[in-house]
Amino acid sequence: MQRVQAVGVIGAGIAGLACAERLLRAGISVTVFEKSRGIGGRVATRRTDTGTTFDHGAQYFTVREAEFREQVQAWVAAGVAAAWQGRVVSLEHGAVTQLDDQPPRYVGVPTMNAIAKSLAAGVDVRTNVTVRALWDVHGRWQLEDSADARHGLYDVIVSTAPPPQSLALIGGLSRTLGQTLARVAMRPCWAVLLEMQESLPAAFDGAFVADSPLSWIARNSSKPGRQPTECWVLHASPEWSQAHLEEPAEGVAAMLAREFWRVTGMPSQVAKQLTAHRWRYALPQEPLAERYLFDRERNLAACGDWCGGSRVEGAFMSGWSLAEACLTGA
Ligand SMILES: Cc1cc2nc3c(=O)[nH]c(=O)nc-3n(C[C@H](O)[C@H](O)[C@H](O)COP(=O)(O)OP(=O)(O)OC[C@H]3O[C@@H](n4cnc5c(N)ncnc54)[C@H](O)[C@@H]3O)c2cc1C
Fold first, then answer.
1. Is any atom of ligand 1 closer than 6 Å to the C-beta of 307?
2. Less CB within 10 Å around the terminal CB: N or C of the chain?
3. How many domains is the chain built from?
4. Residue 124 in contact with residue 9, Cβ under 8 Å?
């Protein structure tokens, strides 16, 4: 492969931004295309009508690998991330159990997507652009968006869209990528945003919930830099989310809110805000062993949290490793 000079990245989640930021630092021209209005992907923040913000996707991140540790230290030094000292427990049939050996947990500040904004500084990110097709123009790539506009030329295209969407975009252009992408299943998650009228007497700030339609509940307002208003994020289990995937959001929100009062045993309140958000592709069922996928004959690549390791750290490492591969040709 000739020296890479221009790269087009599909998706401004953590994988796409980590990849773009690393390439930009090495002097490569990079453009990131994001279909949503904002950046961050599943590292997401929702602002409600009352002005309250909720982290309704990723709740926090942990650190294992050296490269990610360096990045997290830089975010903390820049004030865009901080340790979350929330009391995280396990909750089963109303019984609260303290957890041993808990890893340090970090969050974006003042909202989760602050880390995405920090990675994107200086990167050419074009939001509200849905990539619909790729065109081979004499061995280089052009992207076509849903408004029929064309972008590029690029030497390499990196897709960080979840596997079913990456498959639709690049699967027909690279048989090896197509076959691998088709193997990755993603699991859904219904998330509920619950703002209270009054503070709650909970003895914890986050809980892994067992034996319930809920799998996780967290007091969003216990995270650093958030508004003091008592608000909680509830996540349904993958199984429950799958079973109720196509149901209207209002009904899902009501069912999961009732379950919240049941599992916590706290006296219920009429919520100030109650909304549900469906993540159709929330978490990979089983991430691939490969850190990224790269078809060097076609100059097409794919990465994300479903490659190498899941979650925010996995997404970062996947994007970062793919950038290194573009730079070194390794
Ligand atoms: C409910 C929930 C809870 C979670 N909790 C945690 C947690 O507590 N800790 C943790 O570490 N991780 C958690 N995660 C996982 C974490 O959020 C993800 O692993 C990580 O954010 C994935 O990043 P990514 O860049 O791989 O993908 P994404 O964030 O999905 O980014 C892909 C981007 O591509 C864009 N896109 C897709 N198709 C197109 C197109 N055609 N054109 C342009 N753009 C396109 C999408 O809009 C999106 O922004 C959670 C996820 C969810 C949903």
1. no
2. C
3. 2
4. no
